[in-house]
Design brief:
Length: about 25
């Protein structure tokens, strides 16, 4: 895969995980 694409997907994935974690701790 293209490094830029992998980095973008990883960033989006981590941001999604953080949102789910934040919602779970409210």
């Amino acid at each position: 895969a293209i490094d830029g694409v992998v980095a973008t997907e990883s960033f989006v994935y981590l941001r999604l995980v953080k949102q789910l974690y934040d919602w779970g701790t409210q």
